[in-house]
């Protein structure tokens, strides 16, 4: 049907756009405090970027990407996440040649063919951070603190930060072998996805949302017992820095995230009253991603925050702001001769930076006054044919009901002065 949008999409209507701007403005304010600069990447990329960057064994690549062949016979994918795109831009535009680290943020739509539900859409929006070239735990701590401060600045409470280390190419093969040994005997009882992951990426089995798989993997070996000294020191350093900053966290050995590029630090911030979609922020370190995309060995870390889920959380906690959509001045016209004169006033008010509007539907005086009330106009400027002929304007204060007839220039000065106050 032409009157229905595609499943999993949602119009952001004028009544709610103000809430989105509030979140976006808060994100930009926080990023400015932490010295992160905005980047805007295309909403589609070459499919190979996500195959190599995200990992071919992930649910995103296997099941959820919107991929098509363009007229040049190239495989193109709508971005399902933005980290790989930022890394591509980092390399293509030689941002690595600037002073380092590179600290970037983005706000925009992502696309995944997923089952729509509360807080989950096929076109959804993320606020994300990427920091490249710094490898110590301090940048990890900064990234996590930025996420926490952003959510706290919005007023959100009951948030829980979960941490884990998923190791590195040195220690992960040891853990992989131990995990496979533990899971092997019961493998046939796991879901088809987990059976497929066993040989390719067994850590993803710990992330399976199937309750039966969760029960079968209980008691599995923990990555913490297999970390190499470098990963162990990095994780300990991160925990010390977060504690020094009074950031509360819980360790979650089953937190592996859903992307293959993560190394060392993985974290998630949850707002548990949202239920199954409780994760409002997730991220981690991706030290091998730049090299995987064709660059030199460059460390990186980032996070993404789902804006739809943040809106849900704000609504649940009654934290959505009051959006001021009041109109300063509504210009009411009576008669055909008055319209050019009224339009001139409207334009002058807008040039002065005053929000103003008028009727464009040839309504009656009564209907125009009702519309002015609906727009919550502070003042009404009434112009009929007689007023236009005399170069005058009737200015009415909608709160007090007081009105006076003024010359055009004086009416403009008065309205400018009143709105300035």
In percent terms, what proportion of residues is strand?
Answer: 15-25%
Domain tally: 2
User: How large is the count of helical segments?
Assistant: 15
CATH fourth-tier homologous superfamily of the largest domain: Bira Bifunctional Protein, Domain 2
Q: Averaged pLDDT, please?
A: 93
Beta strand count: 16
Main sheet summary = 8 strands, mixed
CATH topology type of the largest domain: BirA Bifunctional Protein, domain 2
The percent of residues in helical segments reads: 25-40%
CATH class annotation of the largest domain: Alpha Beta
Could you tell me the radius of gyration in angstroms? 28 Å
General shape: elongated
Oligomer: single chain
Structural class: alpha+beta
Unreliable segments of 5+ consecutive residues: none
